[in-house]
Design goal:
single chain; alpha+beta; Jelly Rolls; twelve-stranded antiparallel sheet; globular
């Protein structure tokens, strides 16, 4: 099945309209560090990934309620699943993450080479917001790019939409979140089940607006730029957020 799904991804990438779709997405990405990218994969691939994500979060999710000084004590209230757990339960998701076709399309969209994240725990992770007040609060990521697959999401009236501030920088010793929010306009984007989006996550301050009801489940695939490999990157927030724990397993 995995081979068939990856073959369908390859076939989808040969559609004649893809070049026009990529050009439009590249313009959006360049303007605000965010672009819808649902056109990158066919429905069959979305459905197969969603099936694995929902099965894994149901048996391997760990509940978190944390704050990080590196991001000004913004909250992380969610259930999540680590890269190691995903790899243990799915052959499809690692295959999609490593797909040369998908990585090549991402490189065309962002306008530069896209590389596998050198820090394996940040390659792909699942998060679920499931309680009123759950949020992935204001933060930056350690590496340059994220491809987010939206599996479940409530309507924007119930929260769960994305907000981002492009052209910002992360000083872990002095994050100054409010100053970053004042530095550039904040963009908000509604996302729906089945959507994919791409974000330049190391220079785009971003968050998921807190839920008031409903469930928001995503899988985030993180990728690096060449410049990331030339920089010493620490992983304080990632290591804490995804640490193995017995806390409230599903």
């Amino acid at each position: 099945m995995n081979a068939r799904i990856l073959q369908e991804l390859d076939q989808h990438a040969r559609r004649p309209q893809l070049a026009e779709e990529l050009a439009a997405a590249r313009r959006r990405f360049a303007s605000c560090g965010f672009s819808s990218a649902s056109f990158l994969v066919p429905p069959s691939v979305k459905e197969a990934v969603a099936e694995d994500v929902l099965a894994i979060i149901g048996k391997s999710g760990i509940r978190r309620d944390l704050r990080f000084k590196e991001t000004g004590n913004t909250p992380r209230r969610m259930r999540n699943v680590t890269q190691a757990e995903i790899t243990a339960h799915s052959a499809l998701i690692p295959g999609v993450y490593q797909s040369e076709t998908l990585v090549g399309l991402l490189a065309e969209l962002v306008g530069e080479p896209v590389l596998a994240c050198p820090y394996e725990p940040e390659q792909y992770v699942i998060t679920r917001l499931e309680r009123s007040g759950d949020t992935h609060g204001w933060h930056w990521d350690d590496y340059s790019f994220a491809l987010v697959w939206v599996i479940e999401c409530p309507p924007a009236e119930d929260g769960g939409f994305v907000q981002c501030v492009p052209g910002t920088t992360w000083d872990k010793a002095n994050p100054s979140i409010n100053r970053a929010l004042l530095s550039n306009p904040t963009h908000s984007f509604e996302v729906l089940p089945g959507d994919l989006y791409v974000m330049r996550t190391n220079t785009t301050l971003h968050r998921v607006y807190p839920l008031s009801s409903g469930v928001r489940t995503i899988i985030n695939m993180g990728y690096a730029a060449k410049t990331d490999l030339e920089t010493v990157v620490s992983h304080e927030t990632m290591d804490a957020l995804w640490a193995d724990s017995a806390a409230e397993k599903a």
